[in-house]
Amino acid sequence: MNLQHLFLNGDGRIGRQDFWIGMVILIVANIVLGFVAGLVGWAAAGIWGAAILAGLVGLAMTLPAYFLLVKRSNDRDYPQTYVQALMALNIAFQIKNMVIPIEVGGPSLLSMLFSLAIAVAGLWALVDLGFFQGTRGPNRYGPDPLSVPAA
Fold it and tell me: What CA–CA distance (Å, rounded) separates 73 from 75?
């Protein structure tokens, strides 16, 4: 498996196995880097520093996640607008959390709506892209990844 192609290129298709391997790598990297960024940011500037650095890590992880999801949606023969909408929600949520890290009196309606939208879209991505088989044979995005020998 070519990790550079998996995380830095939106062309082609990938199967479920490569998708799950990529997702595990991204989740672990996001947790570790977000934790380290939060600690460093907290030590440097308190809650604002932690929120900004952790948010920047989240934004940086958006691009590899986008390419991974795009290739998997290509395998399902979906238009890329679904993934673009999910990534736009993610970016907006990261920026919102960097600007307003703590909400006095509990989460605002905006935070709850963001969280709900991301949860629903993320559940769709998990179930549809992670568990259902892709289009058999070639489609408009390339050959079937299950019929092509691994490079």
Answer: 5
